[in-house]
Design goal:
187 residues; 3 domains; 9 helices
């Protein structure tokens, strides 16, 4: 049933039809429960595959393709090397999405440190903004996106959306490189 549903992309009514044809007595509700309820072991295994895959090789390949989720455009990202493949769907195809994929779909954290300072320069954030950020952001402390947004809104409300995007990307990459939960891929 799982192979027909997930790999074969067969609808539940068609799977039910196949099962009834071979003489299996199962209701539509029971089939649906088998396919979508209590899937935590699959999610845990999914993350274990990602971790083992990231550890298996010094290089990784990331590719994305457009996909539709509930009528909205999203991107399906495939992270792989010759030994594994990991799929993760996100609403966007950008640096933040890439960091989510590398961390099993988790929301990125943000950190101001030496790595972030170098990345701010590389991403074209002016020295003026870098100096102001150094006075407002706590060093070597991880912030979630809500905490970072609140801090930037209150302390640097004049920062434009383009600069803010670059700042968030630099801080997120710095936090990713500092974390120890996942094997780190050089970005």
């Amino acid at each position: 049933m799982l192979a027909l549903y997930f790999s074969g992309r067969m609808s539940e009514p068609k799977i039910l039809e196949v099962l009834h044809t071979i003489g299996m007595s199962i209701s539509a509700g029971e089939l649906s429960d088998l396919l979508i309820k209590d899937q935590e072991p699959f999610h845990a295994e999914h993350l274990q595959i990602l971790e083992a895959g990231l550890k298996s090789s010094p290089w990784q390949h990331l590719d994305s393709t457009g996909t539709t989720v509930n009528g909205h455009n999203h991107h399906c990202h495939m992270l792989c090397n010759p030994l594994y493949s990991f799929y993760c769907t996100t609403p966007f195809k950008n640096r933040m999405s890439m960091l989510r994929v590398l961390q099993g779909g988790a929301d990125p954290l943000f950190r101001c440190n030496e790595v972030a300072s170098q990345l701010l320069s590389n991403l074209g954030v002016s020295l003026k903004w870098q100096e102001q950020l150094a006075t407002v952001l706590p060093g070597e402390v991880d912030l979630n996106e809500e905490q970072l947004d609140r801090l930037l809104d209150s302390c640097l409300p004049q920062m434009g959306p383009i600069v803010r995007k670059s700042v968030k990307e630099a801080l997120a990459i710095a936090a990713y490189r500092s974390q120890t939960s996942w094997p780190i891929v050089c970005l």
